[in-house]
Amino acid sequence: MNIIFLNREPNIQNNLHKTYNKLYFGLLLAGVYIIAPFLLAAMHNQPAADDYFTAVRDAGTGFIPVLQDSYLHWSGRYFALVIARINPLVFHSFTAYKLYAVILLLLFAASLFVLLRQLLNRYLTLKQLAALTVLIAFVYFAAMPSVSEGFYWFSGAWVYQGANVLCMFFVTILLKLLRTTTKLSRLFYATIATIMAVCIVGCNEISLIIICCCLTVFTIQNYLRRCVAFRYFLAIAIITFIAAAISAFAPGNFERLNHQQEYSVSWIWTFSGGLSITGVYTLQWLVQIFIASLLYIPLWGNTIAQKMAANNVWINVKVKWVVVFFVATFAFVQLFTVWAAGGSNAGRIENVIYLFFLLGYFFILQVILVQRAKKNEESANSTSPLLLKIAVILFFINVLDINNNISAAWIDVLSGKEKKYDTELTERAVTAKQCLKDTCLVTPLSALPKTIFFEDIKCTSDSVDLWVNKAYSAYFGKGYIVTSAPLPPEQSNMETLKNLGREIRENMFK
Questions:
Q1: What confidence tens digit (pLDDT) does each residue in 197-248 have?
Q2: Range of the domain at 18
Q3: Cβ–Cβ contacts within 10 Å for residue 337, how many?
Q4: In this structure, are 298 and 430 located in the same domain?
Q5: Among the three residues 412, 442, 461, which one is the final residue of a domain in this structure?
Q6: pTM for the full predicted model
Q7: Do residues 116 and 170 make contact, with C-beta atoms less than 8 angstroms apart?
């Protein structure tokens, strides 16, 4: 009996190892399903709103005058103006506009993988790292507040999501700086990190706050640990804070704040607005993150924890202070968003905050797992086969949930909404170019794909500021271009599927 008992444990471990390998492979396949609709959507992407405005501005004005005017009267986002210079519309390339979305999607995936690899390559295999990248990417893509503003609308995506990409590369470089052993290598990585940090704080205010908070903690930690790289971190921090001050205290920022809405008039409104937005998004995000955690802990977390604990890595990190830092930073950027944006809830801003929330959550979770492993709490590192099966089922149900962004992207592709949207805007551009009247009437859009649609020109009956129309008209060199009717209401994923099914039945029984 003793012999049978002793032989059973290796078999259990071997079977568990095989199960994990199958799950890693399944996640890699799921990664194709997750990224494919977003890449396909990029093929039908079209410019909108500020894309036309900045193209007209930058095509006719030099960079320095634009920078000076923006700094004094609108914003201190100096690097955002650099990004605007590569707007494909400046070169009248609508094809490049579609390609830019593909590049940003791939850069996001690459920066996430590189960050995870630099952080965990001592504890995980390449296959495990790739599968973990898929898991975190899924949680981000499925629940990000605005996909269109996150990857497709150039003027918003490259300023905010581009900053996210730079932030992940930035942390990767800082980790390399910590681990390198030669002065020349430290100087090289410190220089690259400084350039990246200066670019990040010049993109948007939310990324500025997050990078400054994180860099402050990194620098203090290196000082307390008497790390040889401390002087480099200090230099990076000083230069970054100078750049941040230049950006944050631009006269244009204060001039723009004069147009705030009700939330920013009163601190009570600001606090209550920030609290409500934080609560709504946190609940949405935590559902996705909790389900992902059920997979993360057995497939990656426990393995990392055991190896880190054996090498005394992260065992002295004070969990409560890490939680305080992330919660305080998260709450502050939400309050700042409500105050600075005048109560508006821009998806592109929340996209940045969500990535910080997501990565911060998994970091805290891993620290907790490491410290429990160090205490030899076997129950903390054991895996119940039943719970693992439930976690896998919940995850794949979540992947196929009709209401998440991934399902929405597939529905937009398969229903033909994105192709129709692309065709209608291409035909509109031709009509606009050929119009010889002072006021040109064009057909309104009939399809609004949630994945890539951000904004469109209006008709004169819309009681809103028609600045989008003015920018669009200026780009095509016309007096005024308006639509003949308002935009149709946006359809839910279920409504789109019902209409698609109705069209299929009608075509089959004609």
A1: 999 999 999 999 999 999 999 999 888 888 888 999 999 999 999 999 999 9
A2: 2-412
A3: 26
A4: no
A5: 412
A6: 0.90
A7: no
